[in-house]
Amino acid sequence: MAYYRPIAWIGPDRPDGALPLAGTPAWFDHVEVLYRGAPGKVIAAADLPEPARARLTGVRAPLAGLTLDRARIMGVLNVTPDSFSDGGWYHDPGKAADRAGAILAEGADILDIGGESTRPGAAEVPVEEEMQRTVPLIGAITAAHPAAVISIDTRKAPVGAAALEAGAAMLNDVAAFTFDPGMADLAARAAVPVCLMHAQGDPATMQEDPRYDDVLLDVYDFLADRVAAAEAAGIPRDRILVDPGIGFGKTVAHNLALIRGLSLFHGLGCAVLLGVSRKRFIGTVSGEEIAANRGPGSVAVALEGLRQGVHVLRVHDIAETCQAVALWRAVHGLDDRWS
Ligand code: HH2
Protein backbone atom coordinates (compact mmCIF):
# COMPACT_ATOMS: atom_id res chain seq x y z
CA MET A 1 0.00 0.00 0.00
CA ALA A 2 1.17 3.54 -0.80
CA TYR A 3 0.85 6.40 1.70
CA TYR A 4 0.91 9.99 0.44
CA ARG A 5 2.63 12.66 2.51
CA PRO A 6 2.20 16.14 1.00
CA ILE A 7 5.35 18.24 1.40
CA ALA A 8 3.74 21.31 2.94
CA TRP A 9 4.67 24.97 2.45
CA ILE A 10 3.20 28.23 3.56
CA GLY A 11 3.35 31.76 2.18
CA PRO A 12 2.86 33.58 -1.10
CA ASP A 13 5.63 31.98 -3.24
CA ARG A 14 3.20 29.44 -4.55
CA PRO A 15 4.18 27.79 -7.85
CA ASP A 16 1.66 27.08 -10.64
CA GLY A 17 0.02 23.74 -10.04
CA ALA A 18 0.40 23.87 -6.25
CA LEU A 19 -2.59 22.35 -4.48
CA PRO A 20 -4.26 23.64 -1.30
CA LEU A 21 -3.75 21.43 1.76
CA ALA A 22 -7.03 20.40 3.41
CA GLY A 23 -8.63 23.84 3.12
CA THR A 24 -5.85 25.54 5.11
CA PRO A 25 -3.39 28.26 4.05
CA ALA A 26 -0.75 25.55 3.52
CA TRP A 27 -0.08 24.18 0.02
CA PHE A 28 2.00 21.52 -1.67
CA ASP A 29 3.38 20.82 -5.12
CA HIS A 30 5.19 17.57 -4.30
CA VAL A 31 4.23 14.50 -2.33
CA GLU A 32 6.38 11.88 -0.67
CA VAL A 33 5.02 8.40 -1.40
CA LEU A 34 5.80 6.05 1.51
CA TYR A 35 5.74 2.25 1.59
CA ARG A 36 6.25 -0.23 4.42
CA GLY A 37 9.67 -1.82 4.24
CA ALA A 38 10.66 -0.13 0.98
CA PRO A 39 12.19 3.24 0.15
CA GLY A 40 9.82 6.13 -0.54
CA LYS A 41 9.87 8.44 -3.55
CA VAL A 42 8.82 12.00 -4.31
CA ILE A 43 6.23 12.70 -7.03
CA ALA A 44 4.68 15.90 -8.41
CA ALA A 45 1.31 16.81 -6.90
CA ALA A 46 -0.13 16.61 -10.43
CA ASP A 47 0.59 12.86 -10.43
CA LEU A 48 -1.43 12.15 -7.27
CA PRO A 49 -4.05 9.47 -7.86
CA GLU A 50 -7.66 9.80 -6.76
CA PRO A 51 -9.04 9.48 -4.08
CA ALA A 52 -5.81 10.61 -2.34
CA ARG A 53 -5.88 13.94 -4.17
CA ALA A 54 -9.48 14.68 -3.16
CA ARG A 55 -8.81 13.74 0.47
CA LEU A 56 -5.64 15.86 0.72
CA THR A 57 -7.11 18.95 -0.90
CA GLY A 58 -10.75 18.97 0.28
CA VAL A 59 -12.00 21.85 2.42
CA ARG A 60 -12.96 20.52 5.86
CA ALA A 61 -16.49 21.14 7.15
CA PRO A 62 -16.92 23.73 9.91
CA LEU A 63 -16.49 22.39 13.43
CA ALA A 64 -19.47 23.30 15.63
CA GLY A 65 -19.91 26.43 13.47
CA LEU A 66 -16.17 27.28 13.34
CA THR A 67 -14.68 27.36 9.84
CA LEU A 68 -11.37 25.54 9.56
CA ASP A 69 -9.72 27.75 6.94
CA ARG A 70 -7.46 28.95 9.76
CA ALA A 71 -6.26 27.03 12.79
CA ARG A 72 -8.57 27.05 15.78
CA ILE A 73 -7.26 27.16 19.32
CA MET A 74 -8.63 24.62 21.77
CA GLY A 75 -7.90 25.75 25.34
CA VAL A 76 -7.42 22.98 27.92
CA LEU A 77 -9.23 23.01 31.25
CA ASN A 78 -8.56 19.97 33.41
CA VAL A 79 -10.80 19.67 36.46
CA THR A 80 -8.71 16.92 37.98
CA PRO A 81 -6.50 16.67 41.03
CA ASP A 82 -3.71 14.96 39.07
CA SER A 83 -3.29 16.24 35.48
CA PHE A 84 0.35 16.49 34.54
CA SER A 85 0.58 20.25 34.06
CA ASP A 86 -2.46 21.86 35.71
CA GLY A 87 -3.59 19.08 38.06
CA GLY A 88 -5.28 20.43 41.19
CA TRP A 89 -5.24 24.05 40.04
CA TYR A 90 -8.87 24.10 38.86
CA HIS A 91 -10.31 21.23 40.90
CA ASP A 92 -12.33 23.81 42.84
CA PRO A 93 -15.53 24.60 40.81
CA GLY A 94 -15.30 28.39 41.35
CA LYS A 95 -11.67 28.49 40.20
CA ALA A 96 -12.54 26.29 37.22
CA ALA A 97 -15.37 28.60 36.08
CA ASP A 98 -13.05 31.63 36.41
CA ARG A 99 -10.36 29.85 34.43
CA ALA A 100 -12.89 28.96 31.69
CA GLY A 101 -13.77 32.67 31.35
CA ALA A 102 -10.07 33.55 31.15
CA ILE A 103 -9.37 30.89 28.51
CA LEU A 104 -12.16 32.31 26.34
CA ALA A 105 -11.06 35.91 26.94
CA GLU A 106 -7.49 35.03 25.95
CA GLY A 107 -8.77 33.93 22.54
CA ALA A 108 -9.56 30.21 22.62
CA ASP A 109 -12.14 29.14 20.02
CA ILE A 110 -12.96 25.90 21.84
CA LEU A 111 -12.79 24.93 25.51
CA ASP A 112 -11.78 21.30 26.14
CA ILE A 113 -12.91 20.13 29.57
CA GLY A 114 -11.50 16.96 31.09
CA GLY A 115 -12.35 15.25 34.36
CA GLU A 116 -9.97 12.31 34.08
CA SER A 117 -6.23 12.63 33.70
CA THR A 118 -4.78 10.44 30.96
CA ARG A 119 -1.19 11.35 31.77
CA PRO A 120 1.29 8.46 31.86
CA GLY A 121 0.64 6.42 35.00
CA ALA A 122 -2.83 7.88 35.66
CA ALA A 123 -5.54 5.65 37.16
CA GLU A 124 -9.08 5.38 35.81
CA VAL A 125 -11.72 7.67 37.38
CA PRO A 126 -15.21 6.24 38.10
CA VAL A 127 -17.99 7.56 35.82
CA GLU A 128 -19.89 9.26 38.67
CA GLU A 129 -16.80 11.11 39.84
CA GLU A 130 -15.87 12.22 36.32
CA MET A 131 -19.43 13.48 35.74
CA GLN A 132 -19.49 15.35 39.00
CA ARG A 133 -16.25 17.12 38.06
CA THR A 134 -17.28 18.15 34.55
CA VAL A 135 -21.05 18.32 34.01
CA PRO A 136 -22.06 21.09 36.47
CA LEU A 137 -19.06 23.12 35.29
CA ILE A 138 -20.15 22.81 31.65
CA GLY A 139 -23.63 23.95 32.68
CA ALA A 140 -22.17 26.96 34.49
CA ILE A 141 -19.91 27.91 31.56
CA THR A 142 -22.78 27.56 29.07
CA ALA A 143 -24.93 29.84 31.23
CA ALA A 144 -22.20 32.47 31.56
CA HIS A 145 -20.87 32.20 27.97
CA PRO A 146 -23.71 30.98 25.74
CA ALA A 147 -21.59 31.26 22.57
CA ALA A 148 -18.70 29.18 23.94
CA VAL A 149 -17.90 25.98 22.02
CA ILE A 150 -17.23 23.32 24.64
CA SER A 151 -15.60 19.95 24.03
CA ILE A 152 -15.73 17.13 26.58
CA ASP A 153 -12.50 15.16 26.91
CA THR A 154 -13.76 11.73 27.94
CA ARG A 155 -13.49 8.06 27.00
CA LYS A 156 -16.89 7.24 28.52
CA ALA A 157 -20.29 7.47 26.84
CA PRO A 158 -22.31 8.31 29.99
CA VAL A 159 -19.98 11.22 30.73
CA GLY A 160 -20.10 12.36 27.10
CA ALA A 161 -23.91 12.17 27.01
CA ALA A 162 -24.32 14.19 30.21
CA ALA A 163 -21.79 16.76 29.00
CA LEU A 164 -23.63 17.22 25.69
CA GLU A 165 -26.89 17.56 27.62
CA ALA A 166 -25.27 20.30 29.73
CA GLY A 167 -24.14 22.27 26.67
CA ALA A 168 -20.98 20.69 25.21
CA ALA A 169 -20.88 20.63 21.40
CA MET A 170 -18.07 18.18 20.73
CA LEU A 171 -16.61 14.87 21.96
CA ASN A 172 -12.87 14.30 22.41
CA ASP A 173 -12.09 10.62 22.91
CA VAL A 174 -8.42 9.81 23.54
CA ALA A 175 -9.27 6.12 23.14
CA ALA A 176 -11.00 6.58 19.75
CA PHE A 177 -14.01 4.45 20.83
CA THR A 178 -11.82 1.51 21.99
CA PHE A 179 -12.43 2.13 25.73
CA ASP A 180 -16.22 2.49 25.49
CA PRO A 181 -17.78 1.53 22.14
CA GLY A 182 -20.93 3.36 23.35
CA MET A 183 -19.09 6.58 22.44
CA ALA A 184 -19.60 5.79 18.74
CA ASP A 185 -23.37 5.44 19.12
CA LEU A 186 -23.45 8.63 21.17
CA ALA A 187 -21.50 10.61 18.53
CA ALA A 188 -23.73 9.23 15.77
CA ARG A 189 -26.98 9.92 17.63
CA ALA A 190 -26.02 13.37 18.90
CA ALA A 191 -24.60 14.36 15.47
CA VAL A 192 -21.71 16.29 17.04
CA PRO A 193 -18.07 16.40 15.92
CA VAL A 194 -15.78 13.84 17.55
CA CYS A 195 -12.00 13.71 17.86
CA LEU A 196 -10.47 10.23 17.52
CA MET A 197 -6.98 10.06 19.00
CA HIS A 198 -4.31 7.38 18.70
CA ALA A 199 -2.93 5.88 21.90
CA GLN A 200 -0.88 2.74 22.40
CA GLY A 201 -1.84 0.96 25.63
CA ASP A 202 -3.58 2.34 28.71
CA PRO A 203 -2.47 5.54 30.46
CA ALA A 204 -1.38 3.42 33.45
CA THR A 205 1.32 1.57 31.47
CA MET A 206 1.61 3.22 28.05
CA GLN A 207 5.07 4.74 28.55
CA GLU A 208 6.73 1.54 29.76
CA ASP A 209 8.11 0.32 26.43
CA PRO A 210 6.25 1.70 23.43
CA ARG A 211 7.16 0.01 20.14
CA TYR A 212 6.10 0.40 16.51
CA ASP A 213 7.13 -1.11 13.18
CA ASP A 214 6.90 2.34 11.61
CA VAL A 215 5.36 4.86 13.97
CA LEU A 216 3.99 7.22 11.30
CA LEU A 217 2.38 4.49 9.20
CA ASP A 218 1.18 2.46 12.21
CA VAL A 219 -0.58 5.50 13.70
CA TYR A 220 -2.03 6.34 10.27
CA ASP A 221 -3.39 2.79 9.85
CA PHE A 222 -4.88 2.82 13.36
CA LEU A 223 -6.67 6.10 12.66
CA ALA A 224 -7.84 4.90 9.24
CA ASP A 225 -9.33 1.86 10.96
CA ARG A 226 -11.03 3.97 13.65
CA VAL A 227 -12.42 6.39 11.03
CA ALA A 228 -13.84 3.38 9.16
CA ALA A 229 -15.40 2.09 12.40
CA ALA A 230 -16.89 5.52 13.08
CA GLU A 231 -18.35 5.69 9.58
CA ALA A 232 -19.80 2.21 10.02
CA ALA A 233 -21.47 3.48 13.22
CA GLY A 234 -23.12 6.29 11.23
CA ILE A 235 -20.70 9.19 11.81
CA PRO A 236 -19.87 10.99 8.57
CA ARG A 237 -16.19 11.71 7.90
CA ASP A 238 -16.83 15.46 7.94
CA ARG A 239 -17.72 15.25 11.65
CA ILE A 240 -14.50 13.39 12.56
CA LEU A 241 -11.20 14.91 13.68
CA VAL A 242 -8.09 12.77 13.85
CA ASP A 243 -5.18 13.20 16.24
CA PRO A 244 -1.86 11.28 16.33
CA GLY A 245 -1.91 11.39 20.16
CA ILE A 246 1.47 12.90 20.97
CA GLY A 247 2.83 11.40 24.20
CA PHE A 248 0.34 8.54 24.39
CA GLY A 249 2.51 5.41 24.28
CA LYS A 250 5.39 7.11 22.43
CA THR A 251 9.07 7.79 22.97
CA VAL A 252 10.59 11.19 22.20
CA ALA A 253 11.73 9.82 18.83
CA HIS A 254 8.20 8.55 18.08
CA ASN A 255 6.70 11.95 18.93
CA LEU A 256 9.21 13.79 16.75
CA ALA A 257 8.66 11.42 13.81
CA LEU A 258 4.90 12.01 14.04
CA ILE A 259 5.30 15.78 14.17
CA ARG A 260 7.72 15.70 11.22
CA GLY A 261 5.26 13.63 9.19
CA LEU A 262 2.01 15.27 10.35
CA SER A 263 0.77 16.26 6.90
CA LEU A 264 0.34 12.54 6.10
CA PHE A 265 -2.79 12.51 8.29
CA HIS A 266 -4.63 14.83 5.87
CA GLY A 267 -4.92 11.73 3.68
CA LEU A 268 -7.67 10.53 6.04
CA GLY A 269 -9.91 13.31 4.73
CA CYS A 270 -10.70 14.62 8.24
CA ALA A 271 -9.72 17.73 10.17
CA VAL A 272 -6.44 17.21 12.08
CA LEU A 273 -6.00 18.10 15.76
CA LEU A 274 -2.58 18.37 17.43
CA GLY A 275 -1.94 18.31 21.19
CA VAL A 276 1.69 18.84 22.15
CA SER A 277 1.22 21.45 24.84
CA ARG A 278 3.64 21.18 27.78
CA LYS A 279 4.17 17.47 27.16
CA ARG A 280 7.05 15.42 28.52
CA PHE A 281 9.00 15.33 25.24
CA ILE A 282 9.18 19.13 25.28
CA GLY A 283 10.71 18.90 28.74
CA THR A 284 13.14 16.19 27.64
CA VAL A 285 14.34 18.02 24.52
CA SER A 286 14.58 21.43 26.22
CA GLY A 287 15.66 20.36 29.70
CA GLU A 288 12.65 22.12 31.29
CA GLU A 289 11.42 19.95 34.14
CA ILE A 290 8.45 22.12 35.16
CA ALA A 291 5.51 21.48 32.83
CA ALA A 292 4.04 24.97 33.28
CA ASN A 293 7.31 26.48 31.97
CA ARG A 294 7.14 24.60 28.67
CA GLY A 295 5.09 27.26 26.87
CA PRO A 296 7.84 28.42 24.48
CA GLY A 297 8.67 24.88 23.31
CA SER A 298 4.96 24.12 22.97
CA VAL A 299 4.42 27.21 20.81
CA ALA A 300 7.40 26.30 18.59
CA VAL A 301 5.92 22.87 17.86
CA ALA A 302 2.42 24.34 17.39
CA LEU A 303 3.76 26.62 14.63
CA GLU A 304 5.31 23.62 12.90
CA GLY A 305 1.83 22.07 13.07
CA LEU A 306 0.39 25.12 11.34
CA ARG A 307 2.97 24.86 8.55
CA GLN A 308 1.65 21.37 7.93
CA GLY A 309 -1.99 22.44 7.87
CA VAL A 310 -3.21 21.38 11.31
CA HIS A 311 -6.80 22.56 11.87
CA VAL A 312 -7.00 22.59 15.69
CA LEU A 313 -4.24 23.19 18.26
CA ARG A 314 -4.96 21.91 21.79
CA VAL A 315 -3.03 24.19 24.19
CA HIS A 316 -2.67 25.29 27.81
CA ASP A 317 -0.93 28.62 27.09
CA ILE A 318 -3.73 30.31 25.20
CA ALA A 319 -2.60 33.95 25.09
CA GLU A 320 0.96 32.98 24.15
CA THR A 321 -0.23 30.65 21.38
CA CYS A 322 -2.70 33.21 20.00
CA GLN A 323 0.03 35.85 19.92
CA ALA A 324 2.43 33.50 18.13
CA VAL A 325 -0.22 32.45 15.61
CA ALA A 326 -1.15 36.09 14.88
CA LEU A 327 2.48 36.96 14.13
CA TRP A 328 3.03 33.77 12.13
CA ARG A 329 -0.01 34.61 9.98
CA ALA A 330 1.08 38.21 9.46
CA VAL A 331 4.67 37.26 8.52
CA HIS A 332 3.41 34.73 5.97
CA GLY A 333 1.04 37.25 4.38
CA LEU A 334 -2.07 35.47 5.64
CA ASP A 335 -3.60 38.45 7.45
CA ASP A 336 -5.16 40.98 5.04
CA ARG A 337 -4.81 43.78 7.58
CA TRP A 338 -1.03 43.84 7.17
CA SER A 339 -0.45 42.89 3.56
N1 HH2 B 1 -3.69 15.19 25.43
C1 HH2 B 1 -4.12 15.09 26.70
C2 HH2 B 1 -5.48 14.96 26.98
N2 HH2 B 1 -6.39 14.93 25.99
N3 HH2 B 1 -6.91 15.00 23.69
C3 HH2 B 1 -6.51 15.07 22.42
N4 HH2 B 1 -7.40 15.02 21.42
N5 HH2 B 1 -5.17 15.20 22.09
C4 HH2 B 1 -4.20 15.25 23.04
O1 HH2 B 1 -3.01 15.35 22.67
C5 HH2 B 1 -4.60 15.16 24.40
C6 HH2 B 1 -5.99 15.03 24.70
C7 HH2 B 1 -3.11 15.15 27.81
O2 HH2 B 1 -2.91 16.45 28.23
P1 HH2 B 1 -3.62 17.12 29.49
O3 HH2 B 1 -5.10 17.18 29.31
O4 HH2 B 1 -3.02 18.44 29.74
O5 HH2 B 1 -3.22 16.21 30.71
P2 HH2 B 1 -3.96 15.08 31.54
O6 HH2 B 1 -4.32 13.97 30.62
O7 HH2 B 1 -2.95 14.71 32.58
O8 HH2 B 1 -5.21 15.68 32.14
Tally of alpha and pi helices: 10
**End-to-end separation:** 43 Å
Give the CATH level 1 class: Alpha Beta
Task: Summarize the amount of helix as a percent range.
Answer: 25-40%
Give the overall shape, derived from the CA principal axes.
Answer: globular
Main beta sheet strand tally, sense and closure: 8 strands, parallel, barrel
Secondary-structure element pattern, one letter each: EEEEHEHEHEHEHEHEHEHHEH
What binds here, in terms of ligands, is: 6-hydroxymethylpterin-diphosphate
Strand order of the largest sheet: 5-6-7-8-9-10-11-12
Helix-strand category: alpha/beta
CATH superfamily: Dihydropteroate synthase-like
How many separate domains make up the residues?
1
Low-confidence stretches: none
Give the averaged pLDDT, no decimals: 96
Give the C-alpha Rg: 19 Å
